[in-house]
Specification:
By secondary structure, the protein is an all-beta fold. The chain contains one helix and 14 strands.
C-alpha cells in the first residue's frame, strides 16, 4: 500500500493508515485518523488524502472488486472517492486544497458518505488488459464543513477482495440448526466452495473445504 501519497501527504491533518481501531471481522482495516492513530475520526482541517495499491494481471480478464466500508461524512463536503485507474493517473494528497478536478472526479465514480454501519460494495466487471499496472485508489476529500459533528467517524475500509467476474458469489444462502448442529445450503455454479463460520463473539473462524 502507498499511504498519503504526494509530497504534501505528510502535512495533511487526516492520514490513511492500517490499524486495529476499526474492523469488520479480522483484526485490522484501512482508515483515516486525524490524531496519529488514537482514533478513527477525521479532523476539522481541509485536506485531500490519497491511498492506493498497484496490481496487474498476466492475462486479459474481467474482475469484481469487493470491499466493506463505513464512514460519516456528507455529500459534497466530506466524501470518499474510490476508483480503478491506470498507474500513471496522478492524484496527490493536498494539505490545503481538497478540491478534486472534474476530470479526476470522473475517473473516481464510486462515492461514499453517511454510512455509519458496515456495508459491502462491489465494483463490477472491470476489464483488465494483460501486464498493465493499475491502481485501486481511495481518495478522502475533507472540506471542513461537518463541524456540527463531534469526532466524526472516518472512512474505514476492510476485506478487499478481487475475483474474476465469471466466478459469481453464491446466492440464496439458507441456514437451519438442530441439536447443536447446523446445515447450510446455497445456489451456485462453482465446482467447489470454501465455507467459514464462527460463533457469535468469537474472533476465530472454522473453515470447511
Amino acid at each position: 500500500w502507498v499511504f498519503n501519497y504526494g509530497a504534501d501527504g505528510v502535512n495533511c491533518n487526516d492520514q490513511w493508515m492500517i490499524g486495529g481501531l476499526e474492523h469488520n471481522d479480522g483484526k485490522q482495516s484501512l482508515y483515516i485518523s486525524c490524531d496519529a492513530g488514537k482514533s478513527a475520526t477525521y479532523g476539522y482541517k481541509k485536506n485531500l488524502v490519497v491511498a492506493y495499491r498497484v496490481f496487474e494481471f498476466a492475462e486479459q480478464v474481467s474482475v469484481d472488486i469487493t470491499f466493506d466500508y463505513k464512514l460519516y461524512g456528507a455529500e459534497n463536503t466530506s466524501m470518499l472517492y474510490v476508483g480503478l485507474v491506470r498507474e500513471g493517473v496522478d492524484i496527490q494528497s493536498n494539505s490545503l486544497d481538497p478540491i478534486l478536478s472534474p476530470t479526476l472526479k470522473n475517473q473516481l465514480p464510486h462515492r461514499f458518505y453517511q454510512s455509519i454501519n458496515w456495508n459491502t460494495y462491489t465494483i463490477q466487471n472491470q476489464r483488465m488488459s494483460p501486464n498493465i499496472r493499475v491502481k485501486l485508489i481511495f481518495v478522502w476529500e475533507n472540506y471542513n464543513t461537518d463541524t456540527a459533528k463531534v469526532n466524526p467517524m472516518s472512512p474505514c475500509i476492510d476485506n478487499i477482495q478481487i475475483t474474476k467476474s465469471n466466478c459469481k458469489m453464491p446466492s440464496n444462502l439458507q441456514m437451519t440448526s438442530e441439536c447443536g448442529s447446523f446445515t447450510a445450503t446455497w445456489d451456485g455454479t462453482s465446482d467447489s466452495y470454501e465455507y467459514q463460520y464462527r460463533k457469535t463473539g468469537n474472533q476465530n473462524w472454522t473453515t470447511i473445504k
